[in-house]
Design goal:
Blueprint lengths: L6 H18 L3 E2 L6 E4 L2 E7 L9 E9 L6 E3 L6 H17 L8 E5 L5 E5 H4 L15 E3 L2 H11 L3 H5 L9 H17 L2
Antiparallel strand pairs: 1-2, 2-3, 3-4, 4-5, 4-8, 6-7
Helix pairs in contact: 1-4, 2-4
Length: 192
């Protein structure tokens, strides 16, 4: 039986797996307790779904927040290309297939497509979500144990530089921009 990884342990484990690559890319590790990294006015952080439990596991995604401008949060897994999505989908199917299912498989109430409640087998809820791998869908990566996170980290690490690259020119911190103007102005007067 595999041990389900709680949110606190998720952050600790993913931080240990991703921090060296983020540091290599010029990001700094943020405060302890969460898996988040900062560079300039940008923060990249992992978010665990609130709909997780020891029966069907959990899912996570990666957000990028710009502290300047109106960009807000961006889910960077939307930036996966077609080849990435094919690899990610195959990995998701493998992880879901390994989930420990209760026996007997209970029925639970969920909200259906029309807004009413319907009964669904718990095992059916834990199936891989094929639609999320169609661009530009919001991608959430399922996990149950540390070994699942090890596999997702191996998937993410070679893609982090591309996924965290600014989609437009890097936004420069306004204070830094003002300091650069003052330096140029001082340099102008010194040269005369």
């Amino acid at each position: 039986m595999r041990d389900y990884l709680k949110s606190k342990d998720f952050h600790r484990h993913m931080r240990s797996l991703l921090a060296p690559k983020f540091r290599e890319l010029g990001w700094e590790t943020q405060a302890a307790g969460k898996c988040s990294f900062a560079r300039g006015g940008r923060v990249c952080w992992l978010q665990v779904s609130q709909y997780s439990n020891a029966v069907i596991g959990a899912k996570f995604t990666i957000n990028l927040t710009e502290s300047t401008g109106s960009a807000g949060d961006t889910r960077i897994l939307r930036r996966l290309d077609e080849a990435d999505r094919a690899v990610g989908q195959a990995l998701e199917e493998q992880i879901i297939a390994r989930l420990p299912m209760p026996d007997p498989d209970p029925e639970i109430e969920v909200v259906g497509d029309n807004g009413g409640t319907v009964l669904v087998k718990l095992g059916d809820l834990a199936r891989a979500n094929m639609r999320q791998w169609e661009a530009p869908a919001d991608v959430w990566l399922p996990y149950f144990s540390k070994s699942d996170l090890d596999e997702w980290a191996a998937f993410l690490l070679p893609r982090l530089e591309r996924l965290t690259a600014p989609s437009s020119p890097e936004i420069i911190d306004p204070q830094r921009r003002a300091a650069e103007r003052v330096r140029r102005l001082v340099g102008f007067f010194r040269s005369k």
